[in-house]
Design goal:
The chain is mainly alpha-helical. Helix content is 53%, strand content 10%. The chain contains seven helices and four strands; from the N terminus they run αββαββααααα. Strand 3 and strand 4 form a beta hairpin. The longest helix is centred in the middle third of the chain and has 16 residues, at 70-85.
Length: 161
């Protein structure tokens, strides 16, 4: 039996972990249905998660010396499996490309951002517009990036607490 789900299951697994760590999903987003003993998503939470999952499948990866997206790689691997099954090729390799997982301590960064006042941000050298942008993004449940300089300033704040 050939199963294309398993070699790429990690993409969905990472998306689930990221969803809970970043706050895209939380326990109140689920409800229990007693008739079939399952937990289900609230519709809005489902949309947020699907956005995150699409982002994961559309993230970039280096494959065959080219920049590709994971959904394109999965399509190419499907074609390779088909060629293998009909005898057009003698080899099949699902080990490449391999994932490069980078852990982002998003929750901790959000807490740091939300814990500082505008005055403290100014003292740390964070511009007012940057501070409000950081606050807005920290309150949202979607993933975001913090520029290196602001992150460095936030780290110095953490050390002074």
């Amino acid at each position: 039996m050939y199963d294309l789900q398993e070699p790429f299951r990690w993409i969905a697994d990472v998306a689930v972990m990221e969803a809970f760590e970043s706050g895209v999903l939380d326990l109140p987003d689920f409800y229990f249905t007693g008739d079939d003993y399952r937990y289900r998503f609230e519709a809005e939470a489902k949309e947020r998660f699907l956005d995150l999952l699409r982002e994961r499948f559309n993230s970039g990866v280096r494959y065959r010396d080219r920049a590709s997206k994971w959904d394109t790689v999965i399509e190419q691997k499907t074609v390779e499996l088909g060629r293998y099954l009909v005898g057009r090729t003698a080899e099949l390799d699902f080990s490449e490309p391999s994932p490069k997982l980078v852990r982002d301590e998003d929750r901790e960064i959000r807490k740091r951002i939300l814990s500082i006042s505008e005055l403290e941000a100014r003292q740390l050298g964070i511009a007012r517009s940057t501070y409000y942008d950081l606050l807005r993004n920290a309150r949202r449940k979607l993933s975001y990036k913090v520029c290196a300089k602001a992150l460095e300033n936030l780290d110095s704040h953490l050390g002074s607490i």
